């Protein structure tokens, strides 16, 4: 049967969740294309607050990585905006001229932040908080400036303010109303919240109406309607959102605040649907993921031709994601008229709880200071169950305190544990018993619970403990390799060695993986571990590698590639430079850039040209894409510098030639400086060398990236040969004991510097590590050369396979 063409506009949370639901029920019905204006694969927008708070990175919050699209045969166009829908021809056009026809079209264009229409809103330093670009802008500003003003004291504004405080800025929240989070909290809870956040260092200006943002080029201060001002050099506008309906409106679909949809998410025009924040159902456009995911489920069934109950709207609950503050709000929480409130206020411990009833039905709740019962109350609100007077009062007791009973234990099977993804206690218990999910990650993989805000993780953990007893304690104390197995990395490696397992599939079969194919986390990890354990016999599985490693180049936003040839020790010559210039001209490179690792990146090469570019360069691969040694940065050293005490360039080149190509758990960067002035920045490298009088100091575990870490002193040696011996042993020890994707900075903290030192300083162990490394090095080949000389690889990788 010919597949129907399904086009999704908007690569965000609601749209991609709908596609996941479609794939789960009818994998082969559609040929799917997703078009997203942002340059990234689908990421968890909710966790941008955590990225801003410095707790995590874009990689960590990616929900569906590039490989997921490829594995599911989804064509993904990023950095493209759909600007036109031809309803009659059933065709869309993007801003770069791509046209695509569709049988079914889903609009999931999300929302746009509301920008106050005041003078100065377009000044430099004024931003919103909606996407990764905004988050990057705030992260960058925090490195240069000190004073931030956040306009809007809602959920978003407060989470932004907390993030900026974490980044070391002075933060003032400017709020129009009398109470913070006025859409979610009553006066009592808002007052407690303000006090708590003030303790954390946040400042507030309430009942302040901003009339102007003033500055020459960049913002300098805010002006308020009462004539007062506030000095600031960063302004974050968080004053609400409006559904993004521009495209739908221009296509003539019926719109109001959002795109009008019926109970099956159908718009006013056949075969066009809307889902997520852009959709308006019964007069409501939602701004939280739980209702959007509910919509996605209904739409997936509808579009796949399955019978479905109609979408009848959602009751919502919210939780603020600021550490140290527990706030929960759900339903109709303001009393008055027939809505009667039941409240407790423990002033000493700063706990406030309120439930609002209509007759015997719970219709709303606000919790401050202790929000453990939040999801349970939310379940009751959703079910509109009758609650007796005794239960009413018992709901306000601190469960788990006096009685010893846990909240989770007392929940009924159909009560919701994960509000974002609508997953009940019963579903999780079933996954534990029937799918043998025994960790929070396992539950996430089996049911999606905890995949969004993560607020339910502690309840899931508790439920696992209650359901599995001792067995959970055993599995909880270890981190599993991935959600396909309950075995830890060490247990898997032991089994590979003891049972002589030689292939990724064999490992999965013999060790009882819960999935037949594994996942994008375990496949590359197993490929690495097997290669490390059996350097001579294991045949690398290219298809288990991430796309950059598979193609030996770095894929860029626009789908072209960056090519970085090796320049040992950052030293080059006119011949190499000429070749790079010729290749750049011939293959229309878009940019030549000197990298931080002292070499040249040739950007903008098309995939099919890569083998020809490598051949014409005739230089080794710089592995700028690899989990292996990247570069050895060097200073000019004693050869030219009057401060130099050692020959840093020769040592750097020797180290790079010795350690290149062989795989490691993550990338490995090195540097050699010839004196303590440290021009090569040896203090922030995985292995850094500093020349001193009479020898070299060796520093380890440094990192100059997201998690900045100064390297620790490993030791001091006299000769360059000793440096090479120590560095090789250290690298091999990391290869053998590191967890796949663990940088040495984290590895060192996990293993303990003293323990690592004890191994590396032991002459016997150092020698053995060097010998084992030698074996691994003996079979390495330059991958570019290998591909150039293989017609099979060239055609498989660069002609047939879609990236
Ligand atoms: C910092 C932050 C924290 C949040 N925290 C929470 C929370 O704790 N709990 C919660 O429930 N919700 C939270 N939310 C809200 C939640 O993230 C959103 O409700 C959800 O992401 C909306 O999903 P969506 O797919 O409708 O829109 P989006 O995720 O915004 O996706 C829409 C996508 O469509 C793209 N697009 C738009 N127009 C076009 C076009 N014409 N062509 C191509 N692409 C287009 C956009 O670039 C965007 O990538 C938070 C939001 C933010 C910003
Ligand atoms: N934890 C969470 O669930 C979470 C976190 C972040 C964002 N979100 C969602 O993201 C969306 C955007 O959040 P938001 O906080 O911007 O929206 P919001 O509408 O909830 O809050 C905006 C706040 O700004 C205030 N405001 C309006 N005009 C103002 C002005 N001129 N000056 C000062 N204050 C003004 C309002 O009184 C309101 O409290 C919402 O849908 C929200 O639910 C949710
Ligand atoms: S690290 Fe020392 S030797 Fe090397 S360039 Fe800097 S000052 Fe000169
Ligand atoms: S409650 Fe948000 S992920 Fe479960």
From TrEMBL:
The keyword Ligase does not apply. Its cofactor is FAD; [4Fe-4S] cluster; [2Fe-2S] cluster; siroheme. Residues 416-465, 481-530 form the BFD-like [2Fe-2S]-binding domain. Residues 317-384 form the NADH-rubredoxin oxidoreductase C-terminal domain. Residues 555-618 form the Nitrite/Sulfite reductase ferredoxin-like domain. One of its GO terms (biological process) is nitrate assimilation. Residues 626-765 form the Nitrite/sulphite reductase 4Fe-4S domain. Siroheme binds at residue 679. It holds the Pfam family Fer2_BFD. Pathway: Nitrogen metabolism; nitrate reduction (assimilation). Keywords: 2Fe-2S, 4Fe-4S, FAD, Flavoprotein, Heme, Iron, Iron-sulfur, Metal-binding, Nitrate assimilation, Oxidoreductase. Binds 1 [4Fe-4S] cluster per subunit. Binds 1 siroheme per subunit. One of its GO terms (molecular function) is 4 iron, 4 sulfur cluster binding. [4Fe-4S] cluster binds at residues 635, 641, 675, 679. Residues 5-281 form the FAD/NAD(P)-binding domain. Belongs to the nitrite and sulfite reductase 4Fe-4S domain family. This is NAD(P)/FAD-dependent oxidoreductase. It comes from Lysinibacillus halotolerans. The lineage of its organism: Bacteria, Bacillati, Bacillota, Bacilli, Bacillales.
């Amino acid at each position: 049967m010919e597949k129907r063409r399904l086009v999704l506009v908007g690569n965000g949370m609601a749209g991609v969740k709908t596609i996941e639901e479609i794939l789960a029920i009818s994998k082969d019905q559609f040929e799917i294309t997703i078009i997203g204006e942002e340059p990234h694969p689908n990421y968890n927008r909710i966790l941008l607050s955590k990225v801003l708070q410095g707790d995590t990175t874009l990689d960590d919050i990616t929900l569906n990585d590039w490989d997921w699209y490829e594995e599911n045969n989804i064509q993904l166009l990023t950095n493209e905006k759909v600007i036109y829908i031809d309803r009659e021809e059933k065709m869309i056009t993007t801003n770069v001229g791509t046209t695509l026809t569709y049988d079914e079209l889903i609009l999931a264009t999300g929302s746009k932040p509301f920008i106050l229409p005041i003078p100065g809103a377009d000044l430099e330093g004024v931003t919103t908080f909606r996407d990764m670009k905004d988050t990057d802008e705030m992260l960058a500003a925090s490195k240069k400036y000190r004073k931030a003003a956040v306009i809007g004291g809602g959920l978003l504004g407060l989470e932004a303010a907390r993030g900026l405080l974490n980044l070391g800025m002075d933060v003032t929240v400017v709020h129009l109303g009398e109470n913070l989070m006025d859409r979610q909290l009553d006066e009592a809870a808002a007052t407690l919240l303000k006090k708590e956040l003030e303790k954390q260092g946040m400042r507030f200006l309430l009942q302040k109406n901003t009339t102007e943002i003033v500055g020459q080029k960049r913002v300098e201060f805010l002006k308020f309607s009462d004539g007062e001002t506030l000095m600031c050099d960063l302004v974050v506008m968080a004053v609400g959102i409006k559904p993004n309906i521009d495209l739908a409106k221009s296509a003539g679909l019926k719109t109001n605040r959002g795109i009008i949809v019926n109970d099956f998410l159908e718009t006013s025009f056949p075969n066009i649907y809307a889902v997520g924040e852009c959709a308006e159902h019964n007069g409501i456009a939602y701004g939280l993921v739980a209702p959007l995911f509910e919509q996605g489920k209904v739409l997936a069934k509808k579009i796949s031709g399955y019978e479905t109950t109609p979408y009848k709207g959602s009751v919502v609950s919210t939780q603020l994601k600021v550490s140290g503050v527990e706030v929960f709000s759900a339903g109709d929480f303001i009393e008055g008229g027939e809505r009667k409130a039941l409240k407790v206020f423990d002033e000493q411990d700063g706990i406030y709880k309120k439930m609002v009833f209509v007759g015997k039905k719970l219709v709303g709740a606000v919790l401050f200071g202790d929000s453990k019962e939040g999801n349970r109350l939310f379940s009751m609100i959703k079910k509109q169950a009758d609650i007796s007077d005794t239960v009413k009062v018992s709901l306000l007791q601190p469960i788990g305190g006096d009685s010893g009973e846990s909240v989770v234990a007392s929940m009924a099977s159909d009560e919701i544990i994960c509000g974002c993804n609508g997953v009940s206690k019963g579903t999780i218990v079933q996954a534990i018993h029937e799918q043998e999910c025994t960790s929070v990650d396992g539950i996430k993989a089996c049911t999606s619970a905890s995949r969004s805000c993560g607020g339910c993780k502690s309840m899931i953990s508790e439920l696992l403990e209650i359901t599995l007893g001792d067995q959970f304690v055993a599995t909880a104390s270890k981190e599993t390799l991935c959600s396909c197995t309950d075995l830890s990395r060490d247990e898997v490696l032991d089994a590979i060695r003891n049972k002589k397992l030689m292939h990724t599939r064999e490992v999965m079969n013999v060790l009882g993986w819960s999935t037949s194919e594994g996942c994008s986390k375990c496949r590359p990890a197993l490929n690495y571990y097997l290669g490390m354990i059996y350097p001579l016999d294991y045949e690398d599985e290219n298809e288990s590698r991430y796309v950059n490693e598979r193609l030996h180049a770095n894929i860029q936003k626009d789908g072209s590639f960056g090519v970085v040839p090796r320049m040992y020790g950052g030293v080059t010559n006119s011949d190499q430079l000429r070749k790079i210039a010729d290749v750049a001209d011939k293959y229309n490179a878009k940019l030549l850039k000197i990298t931080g690792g002292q070499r040249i990146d040739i950007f903008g090469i098309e995939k099919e040209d890569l083998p020809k570019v490598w051949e014409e360069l005739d230089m080794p691969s710089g592995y700028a894409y690899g989990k292996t040694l990247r570069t050895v940065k060097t200073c000019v050293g004693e050869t030219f510098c009057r401060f130099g005490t050692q020959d840093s360039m020769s040592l750097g080149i020797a180290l790079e030639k010795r350690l290149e190509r062989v795989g490691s758990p993550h990338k490995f960067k090195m540097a050699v400086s010839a004196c303590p002035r440290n021009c090569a920045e040896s203090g922030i490298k995985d292995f850094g060398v500093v020349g001193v009088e009479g020898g070299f100091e060796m520093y380890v575990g440094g990192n100059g990236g997201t998690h900045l870490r100064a390297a620790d002193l490993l030791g001091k040696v006299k000769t360059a040969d000793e440096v090479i011996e120590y560095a090789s042993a250290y690298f091999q020890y990391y290869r053998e004991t590191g967890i796949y994707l663990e940088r040495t900075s984290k590895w060192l903290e996990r293993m303990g510097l003293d323990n690592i030192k004890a191994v590396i300083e032991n002459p016997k162990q150092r020698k053995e590590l060097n010998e084992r490394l030698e074996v691994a090095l003996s079979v390495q080949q330059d991958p570019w050369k290998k591909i150039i000389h293989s017609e099979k690889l060239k055609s498989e990788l660069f002609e047939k396979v879609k990236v």
